[in-house]
Amino acid sequence: MTVTTTQVPAVTSEVIAIRPGPPLAGTVTVDGSKNAALPLLAAAAALRRPVQLANVPANADVQAMLTLLQYAGHRIARPVGEPDTVLVLPSDGARIAPELFEAAARIRASYYLVPALLAAHGRASLPWPGGCRIGERGMEQHFRVYETFGDRYAVDDHGYAVEAGRRHTGSVSVVLPFRSRGASIAAILRAVIAERPLRLGQPNLSPEVISVLEALRTAGWSAQATEHLIALVPPVAGPQEPGVWMIPGDKIEAGTLACALATTRGDGRIEGVRSEDVAPMVAALRWLGVPVAAHENALVVHAADMRPTHHPLRAIASLSPGGLDADFEPSLMALTLALPGTHLFADTINPGRHGNLLPQLTRLGADIHEISPTQCRLTGPQRLTGAGVEATDIRTGSALLIAGLTADGVTTLGGLEQLRRGHADLPTKLRVLGADICEVTP
């Protein structure tokens, strides 16, 4: 049976109750990807021409980025009747609104705005990245990129400032010491505003970076990407036509929903996600014995027929091409609590994430051995018991939703404002699939 999210009212409370029930089933469509939308919005601003973006998600972080663009002097328009479409118009050159600095402290992705601010104002002054409390938000590689372009930077306890250097021509070469997604996008967008060819060594090749390159190709840029190098060449001068871009579906939301279906031994179809974007998650699910098929624009989970393999899963977050995105790890951890085998999890990319997630799962009765602050091991299946837990960051919240689907009794989940930073309404999507989730009123 196919159902849509419009049939179930959105969850608006700050606390929800989750109870175990029958296997999840049905069809649901993921929102646009937060992690792709944020750099694409910054890229639209850096291009200094009108760009229309479709499938823009309504989560809190994306709405915050749209507000920041307006504070930076860009105009934002929405076509009538198309709430998920946004038109980003070039900066009008007006001064930066004083509210920008304080507002930028609420999200990590504010650093994507540096190139657009340099193009419009010659200077970018921003706070240190905010967002989820999952470890230090290093900016060293970003500063190295800007120095290569001749920019100057200064830092203090509150944030940092980057001043555009003198305009130069010719190719720029940068080799990153590790495959940083943020620094890769910083280098690409800095090359865009400088209109200079770029050779970026050891780049991050995540779907989010590839989405930016695909968008720039529609704007006339030549973009080639291999495991070792991104080569970017400006377009030949010509008419500046408005751009039309599509935000890809949220791979992390799709992976979360797939884990929820698998945890409850349900059957369902998750639409709106590119199969190549979720390939590492699909491989992990199949390794565990979850029957899942990846189609061009959908995942189909047949967990009713699941035969657990007892294989030990090694969920190691990686920045390498084809590696497991760190944001997949929490959902996989929640799933393996219900599956046989001894499973290892590691996330050195976000060193504070386990410190958020493990104590919350422990409240539900999970027995997880912490090997180090970034590594842990668990043996399943385990019997969980409902309790009060808190979404201390986006991915901890999604993992707790999955765990609550099979925990005995009632699990109450607070901190939904954190979950909404990355998902407009993930609990409602689970309710569409049949999850027993209700709002808790004070």
Structure report:
This protein is an alpha+beta fold. Helices cover 32% and strands 23% of the residues. The chain contains 14 helices and 23 strands. It has a 4-stranded mixed beta sheet with strand order 21-22-1-23, with helices on one face. α4 packs parallel to α6 and α8 (251-263) runs parallel beside α10. The longest helix has 14 residues, at 34-47. The protein is globular and about 65 Å long. It starts with 15 loop residues before the first strand and ends with a strand.
Explain the layout of strands and helices.
Elements: E1 16-19, E2 25-29, H1 34-47, E3 51-54, H2 60-71, E4 75-77, E5 86-89, H3 99-104, H4 114-121, E6 123-127, H5 140-148, E7 152-155, E8 159-163, E9 172-175, H6 181-194, E10 198-201, H7 207-218, E11 222-225, E12 229-233, E13 243-246, H8 251-263, E14 267-271, H9 279-288, E15 292-295, E16 298-302, E17 314-316, H10 329-336, E18 341-346, H11 353-363, E19 368-372, E20 375-380, E21 388-390, H12 394-404, E22 411-414, H13 416-422, H14 426-432, E23 436-439
Parallel strand pairs: 2-14, 3-13, 9-10, 17-18, 21-22
Antiparallel strand pairs: 1-22, 1-23, 3-5, 4-5, 6-8, 7-8, 10-12, 11-12, 14-16, 15-16, 18-20, 19-20
Helix pairs in contact: 1-2, 1-4, 1-6, 1-7, 4-6, 5-6, 6-7, 8-10, 8-12, 10-12, 11-12, 12-13
